[in-house]
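I have been asked to look over a protein record a colleague put together. What it holds is a sequence and that sequence's fold in token form. Please read both lines and tell me whether the tokens look consistent with the sequence. I do not need a full report, just your reasoning and any doubts. This is what I was given:
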Amino acid sequence: MPKFTYKAKKSPTEIKEGIVVADNKTAAIQRISDMGYYLLSIEESIGAQSFPGKKTILFQGRISLKDVTYFTRQLSDLLESGITIVRALDILHNQTERRRLKEIILDVRDFCVDGHPLSEALARHPKTFSNLFVAMVRSGETGGALGNILKRIADFNEKQLEVQTKVRSALAYPILMSIVGSITIIVLLTFVIPTMVGMFGDLGQNLPLPTAVLIAISDMIKNYWWLVGSASVVAFFFFTRIYKTADGRFAVDNFKISLPVFGPLIKKIEVARFARTLSTLLANGVPILESLSIVSHTVDNTVVRGEIQKAAKDVRDGSGLAQAISKSSVIPTLLVNMIAVGEESGRVDKALAKVADSYDRESDAAIKVMMSLLEPMLILVLGLVVGFIVIAMLLPIFEINFLAR
């Protein structure tokens, strides 16, 4: 469908520019008039002025979960205040600063003007609005509670953002410490040690073993850095290529959950995400099979995802959810028991929400403990490495002083 770029007066002092989709120029003019604008100029858009969802917009940046959450919260507030969907999208389009999101909102708005439901308009942009998002909006349209559903989506996304923020905050200091420590070690090995080697060579004496080892490491880094760098790049691309295959991804994910300390934590995070997402979908009237299909794509670990898909197949064949999911060795017994209790009481969504809260608390506690241990461990490791370098540099000097006496 053609797109038309227009300039119009929104008020005596405000000029508005935008893009409108219509069958022809006459229909575009009529649509702009229906918005209450006084048209100044209009022309058909060509090439790069297309809408996202139909062509890719380059160099615009990815729309973050934070942007989507903010948009969802505002849309919910506007709809609950009695404003129509089209008018609410108009308001959000005018006040949004991100160009990519601005164009997506405009495309969604124009699609709704054509008589399509909001869920179909959002589904045109799968990179911005997930299957979970679209399914919940569809359930809200069916139940006539779209504003409330959007509020729940915003709450759900905010919890996801809160988890991401906690992890990033916890990792910020250790990562910074690792970078600074690595740079310090590289500078010592590539600049300081070669200078000391020249001084030791002039003395013509045998070097202590730690000093000889340190000089050998320094020479290797200085002379063969290109080989080490090339091998690292090749290994990285080789691992990336393997990880992109289904078998490679499964093997890596299976290794992750089998690790002594990190494995149980990864399981708890994935189970919490599964339980909370499924609870949210079921609470909003999405059928169990559709919910399981959506949830399986929100889980990152392919091993856990495969177990959920197997359970979904068993549910499709007539099994209860608790019975189907109990066959998995990855899913914890607590989740199975809570689902069984929920099925007996008819409130599976409530039971899943409780499990999600429980595992979220356990995950937060585990992350805090790990981060509190990681910092001193990093300090210890970096201290040992730097200490070894310093001692190896000072040992020949101590020997010279000893011989001089």
